Amino acid sequence: MADCFRRPDPLSFEGNVADNWRIFEQEYDIFIAAAHHDKPAKTRAYILLNLAGPDAIERERSFVYAAEVRAPGVKVPAHATVVFDVLLIDVFNVKDDVQVEVLHVPQPCRRKSKKGDFIRYHYNGTFQDGTLFDSSYRRKSTYNTFVGLGHVIAGVDKALLGVCVGEKRHIIVPPHLAYGENGTSDLIPGSAVLIFDIHIIDFHNPKDSVDIHITHKPLQCNNTSTANDLVIYHYNCSLLDGTLLYSSIDLGRPAQATLGQAEVIEGLDQGLKDMCVGEKREVIVPPHFGHGQNEGSVVPADAVLIFELELLDLRKGVPQGFLFVWLEEIPDPLFSSMDLNQDGEVPLEEFTAFIRLQVSMSKGRLHPAMEVDVIIREMFTSQDQNADGRITEDELRLQTDKTIGHDEL
Ligand SMILES: [Ca+2]
Ligand SMILES: [Ca+2]
User: Fold this and answer.
1) Which of 119, 171, 256, 409 could in theory staple to 203 by disulfide, Cβ–Cβ 3.0 to 4.6 A?
2) Per-residue pLDDT reduced to its tens digit, 240-291
3) Do both 271 and 337 map to the same domain?
4) Pair (265, 293) in one structural domain
5) How many whole angstroms from 350 Cα to the centroid of ligand 1?
6) Domain boundary, last residue among 286, 315, 344
């Protein structure tokens, strides 16, 4: 039957169609939806000719059709031979399934779509005579839907299963797997065979996690990124069809972010963790770890993103809300350690010298994403409670951080 689904050459014939039925009957066990070919497409009255049993009800329906298209005021006399002028529009068999021709499968194909996935695809929809009835390209927006759950016509729903990202398919959907005998609105006439050329842009499953592929791991990897660290990195962010959305190269400088503090989308935050300097990765971020259903100026709604990452530098961090942490035991007594000249008060210069000394001896760590002088001045200001420009012993307070188990300045 496969050949029956090739778009037929328009088959126009005049004369008594009953004679022509016989011709078809010998060749096909098919239905033909036929139309009066000199009427404009939108006003075509479709009829069904059952070529398997041309003497049955379908013939009566043909007569109704003949009556409908007659000139106004003209009656079809009883026992008249009705002459049809027929153009072959669609050919299909009620037993036919959707027919799928795979035109292109990109390699590698990480995985194939399955029931419950959410898919974004472009398509052109045409009738068998080549008329375009719908196109996502014309709307400049992909069609987005769940697969295999009956959200689209049965034929398309089935043809969207088992596809790869980037795959192109030519699919032919018989009317019983599309809009049936009735069609829909003005767009699809009854009993129409629909042809879709589809291009899969991406798909994901709502249960997908962030997919991390390490593409280069340096031999030396002692220190890896974790929450609160400042990471400095290059990145490209693209859609799965290869469209580049953002690139740190275009910005002219590397990007930076403090991990674990919602400075970047969650998927990127995850993708930048446990990374060592010099490491390269490909990170695939499903929309629920990205921009979700929000349509951005650059990122389409429900889009899967792919990041190519290279970690350039890593500065170990401090817990959220802190400016400085001790890496060793706090000097005891703290105030007299800080009061370098032992005059009973600590002005900003002395405080700065003390903190810088702790950092240079790796006894303490400052917030990695801020200017050192800015942090130290902020720390000083919060300790100098009466704001007279010096810290005294009774002013000094420590802040408790339960996550690292001791008190901090
Ligand atoms: Ca002093
Ligand atoms: Ca003071």
Assistant:
1) 119
2) 988 999 999 888 899 999 999 999 999 999 999 999 999 999 999 999 999 8
3) no
4) yes
5) 6
6) 315
More confident residue, 331 or 53: 331
- How big is the CA angle at 165 (ends 213 and 111), to the nearest 5 degrees? 55
- Convert the pLDDT of each residue in 330-368 to its tens digit: 888 999 999 999 999 999 999 999 999 999 999 999 999
Tell me the mean pLDDT in the region 83-102: 71
Categorise residue 336: left if φ over 0, alpha if ψ from -120 to 50, beta otherwise. alpha
Query: Which protein residues have their CB within 5 A of the ion that is ligand 2?
Result: 384, 386, 388
Domain that residue 271 falls in: 211-315
Residues 242 and 281 in one domain: yes
Ligand nearest to the CA of 349: 1
The CATH number for 288's domain is 3.10.50.40
- DSSP strand E in 205-272: where? 211-216, 230-239, 244-247, 255-258
The Cβ of residue 295 has, within 10 Å, a number of other Cβ atoms equal to 13
Number of domains present in the structure of the chain: 4
Pull the structure tokens for residue 379: 């720390």
pTM for this predicted structure: 0.72
Rounded to whole angstroms, how far apart are CA atoms 119 and 240?
12
CA distances, 380 to each of 317, 338, 344 (Å): 20, 12, 16
CATH number at residue 381: 1.10.238.10
CA–CA dist 368, 226 (Å, integer): 13
How many angstroms is it from 382 CA to the middle of ligand 2? Answer: 10
Same domain, 103 and 197: yes
Which of 284, 107, 320 has its CA nearest to residue 205? 284
What are 366's strand-pairing partners?
Answer: 324
310/333 same-domain check: no
**108 Cβ partners below 8 Å, 6+ apart?**
none
C-alpha 388 to ligand 2 mean position (Å) = 5
Q: What is the pLDDT of residues 112-155, one digit of tens each?
A: 999 999 999 999 999 987 889 999 999 999 999 999 999 999 99
- Specify whether 248 is located in the same domain as 276: yes
356: CA distance to ligand 1 center in Å? 16
Neighbour count for residue 204 (Cβ, 10 Å): 24
Given 92, 112, 137, the domain boundary residue is: 92
CB 332 within 8 A of CB 398: no
405: left (phi over 0), alpha (psi -120 to 50) or beta: left
